[in-house]
Each structure stands twice: as C-alpha cells, then as structure tokens.
C-alpha cells in the first residue's frame, strides 16, 4: 500500500449536516497488458392523428381506438355502453378500400402524464378498457406504469407506425332481412344489432415504447415541462423538447432510473427489442433518435397481412332506419362513473395482489417491512377482497342498468397502502450537493476543466472560495452493500472492488483548491494513470444491492484517456448526475 493510500484510508472529511467522507482507492500494481486488479475504496459512515379518439370521457364518441377486447369491426353493430358485447351481424356489405397508394410510416414522441394520455398516444381505446374489467390499465401493452405519472418522473411514448389505408362499406350496404324485421321493435333491434356501427376502419401496424425516467432532477424536469406550457402540459415533443428528453434519458439509463415498456399492434412479436432499447439509452449520444430508428427497423418486419384496425369511425344505425329516440341513451355521466369504478377496481386489485405477496414473501417489501405491518395488512385482506368483489359486481350492474345510481362506487372503500409505501420501491439514486452553488450551477462548474472550476464557480457566486461538491444517496434506507467499479467499452469488461456494507455514505467528489481531503476525482485520476500505455474509455460506477435483493448500477462519470509511461497525456471526463 502506498503512502497515498494509507493517508487516504485514514482521512476523514468532516462537514456540517453529518456528511461523511470517502477516499476512493484502487489497486496499485497493474500488470502490463494483463487484467487490472479490482479497484478498492474506503467508505466512512455517514405525429398524432388529426382524427383520433378523444381524451374526453364521452359516452358516444365518433371515433374509437384499438383494443384486443373490443367487439368493434367493420360493418358490425355495437352499443356505446359496452363495446365488448358482440352483436349479431345485421348489415350486408362489401368491404371497400377507400385509400389507394403505398403505405406510409410515421414516428412520434408524446409526453404523457396520466393513463388516458397513455391510451391516446398508443391508440388504445380507454372506453374499451373501461368496458372490460382488467387488472391493469392499457392491458394490451406490457408496460409498468407504477411511477409513470409520479411528480418526479418523465414518461414519453415513442411510436413507429405504418399505415395501410382505410376500408369502408360499399354504397349499396343495407340491413339483412332479419335485421329489417326488427326495426318495428327498437329495443329488440338495439339488443340484437346495436345502435351504432363501424363505418370506416383504419389499418396499421405500430410499435410503441413507454419510457419512464424516475427521480428526475428538479432543473431538468422544470426545463422539460416548460416546453409544454401551451399544450395543456403534455403532448408531442418539439425538437428542443426531444433534445432535453434525450439528455435526461441518457442520465437515467446510466443510473438505473429507467423503466421501459413495449406494445405492438399487428406483427409477430418484439423479441429482444426491450433489451436493445435499454442498451441504446445507455450508450448512444442521442438515445431518443437511436431508439426511434430501432423501432422503425423492428416495424419493417410487419406487413399489411398482419396489420390491425387502430381507428374506427362509427355512425348511427339511424342511417338504416333505426329509431334512436326510442332508446334511453348511454350518458357521459354514466361513462365517467363506469371509468371511475374501473380505476378503483384496479387500485384495489393491485393492493390485494400486494397483500398476497407480503404474505408468501414474493413481494419485495416483504423482506424489509416490520412483521407487525405485514400482519396488519393480512388481517384486512378479507375486507379488501370483499370490496374488490363489490366493485366487480357494480361494474357489471352499471353496464346492464341505465340508472345513474347503478354506476356509483360501492360503499366500504378499503385502502391499505399510501404513497409512502409505494415510494419505498423506487430505485436509489445519487445526487450532488454544494452549499455555495445551486443545481444548475453545479452542472456547469463540474463540466469545466479541472483547475478552472473555482473561477467558473465565481461567475455564479463571487463569494465562493472553494468548490467542494459532495456526492450522496437518496432513497438509501434499504441499501445493503456498495462497491466501486469501472466498465471498459473496448472489451465490455468490468473492474470492481469487493462489496462493502453500506452504512450511509457521502463522498467528496472534487475539491478546488485542493486542500488535504482525498476525493473521488483525484483517486480516479491516479488509478487511470496506472494503466499500461494506451488509450482507454468507459464509465465509472457505484453498484449497490438493497435488502430486497435488487441490484442497481449507478454510473457517475464517462471517461476517455490516454496513458504514456505512467502519465495521463489526455483525458476527457463527463460527470453524470
């Protein structure tokens, strides 16, 4: 062990607010042209359609989107109160192509802040999802939306679509003789044939990816959301919004704060596309553009033969002589209440699933919650099950009974878990503090060349006499072990220290002017210099494991450097936070 390492291991950097210290140490003897020894460290405590299904909760919209469970199909009738209820074919028609010419492919990026906006962006019909009582919203897609709409999250839907045209009914379309005979009894006609029919269907293949960035920094979130001030706070990304999103995506991907979900309409499956997207987000300079390109490449495997209807234009059966005035209409109020029942059912059903997982040990928090809390939840499980059953019964009653009261949420609401419970599942992340600089200023200062940072800092605050950013962790209450490592891009290998117990750490990242405090940057630079002569690039990271058995890799610097004779002759560092 060198004198530097001995001093670093003994050094303790003390500041106010119980921040601890770190000396980040690496192996001394790097054999020439041989694998490096593990790095060591010491821790101290401490484009949308112009015609689309509406976002409004309409009882009787003119346009419907995609759903696997819908009873809608070209020329078939349906009832707006339950579009999953299949009706008898009552129209004789010839399917006619309305649009001729080659297919067209479009790409879009849409910022979404709730489940209805997600449905809209992915062409999934919210009305169909409400009519069919499923456990998860947007059930056609494999998407984890647990924290998608969190105040500190950014969720963007990236979509590639190939459109194959529209089909409609021929001009001579008419009711079947059996349906014509029912016109004298409007209620029987509505029950058999429906009150609306699909007049036009748009067919396409599409791939959508929902990308959620968790625990986004305040300045990044504020800057990104400022792009949507004139569009109700959500919508398609402009070029500048895409650039901001791509930057935030790159950071989140390198710190395990990224959730990726996929969905497809038409096609034969998505294979390993999810893994490819996660990799692109981490390694590409413009990950958003790279992911769109990957979606386009994947979509090339789809064709018109496996396309699906993604938009239905509907019309009233009045066009065929049906007397709509004889039928009590499905109202907007009933539609809103039905969707309210579904939303409450999904919440309660998810809690029921969690309680079961707490009881059998399969839910992650079962490993860390006090047994008394688990026992309390298990005691209330029968009440929760009763409530879930009541919601399911009320959902069925609402669709069958046109009385407004039939669509009220039943009494006896049961809620077992609040936001504090769910937040325990969020991934940990590191952040940087400096008592003299705000978040935006820290980014600029750390990006400056080593030795010049104090001068850059003074442009933000002339009173600054030292640059001393501290790296610490947020969401670390369940962290168990931590280790330091470096990943080499060239051969895709890692060099990491042994894991040590996590006891609540904070680390001195950089210091200017340097005093006597060992810091991460200086220890890293010393370690880089001990490589055999040559050029290297990769990223430095922390790897943490929590008490639930989850592992997270948090990259903190992207580095490329050249060594000659034990000296660094060129280096570029990009700090990531």
Summed up:
The chain is α+β, with helices and mostly antiparallel strands and 577 residues long. The chain contains 16 helices and 22 strands.
List keywords for this structure.
577 residues; 30% helix; alpha+beta; 16 helices
The largest pleated sheet is described as: 9 strands, antiparallel
**Number of DSSP helices?**
16
Number of domains: 3
Structural class: alpha+beta
Oligomer: single chain
Proportion in helices: 25-40%
Overall pLDDT score: 83
N- to C-terminal distance? 31 Å
Judging from the principal axes of the Cα atoms, what is the shape? elongated
Low-confidence stretches: 1-53, 135-140
Q: What report would you give on this structure?
A:
With 577 residues, the protein is of the alpha+beta class. It has 3 domains: 3-46 and 428-575, no CATH class; 63-326, no CATH class; 332-423, no CATH class. The chain has helices at 3-10, 115-122, 126-131, 177-181, 186-193, 218-225, 239-253, 273-283, 287-299, 332-360, 371-379, 381-400, 419-423, 439-447, 453-460, 520-529, and strands at residues 22-23, 42-43, 63-65, 77-78, 91-92, 95-97, 104-112, 154-169, 174-175, 196-213, 235-236, 258-265, 308-316, 429-433, 470-474, 479-488, 493-496, 500-501, 506-508, 534-546, 551-564, 567-575. Strands 3, 4, 6, 7, 8, 10, 11, 12 and 13 form a 9-stranded antiparallel sheet that branches. Helix 7 (239-253) crosses helix 8 (273-283), helix 8 runs antiparallel to helix 9 and helix 14 (439-447) packs antiparallel against helix 15. The longest helix has 29 residues, at 332-360. It is elongated, with a radius of gyration of 29 Å. The protein starts with a helix and ends with a strand.
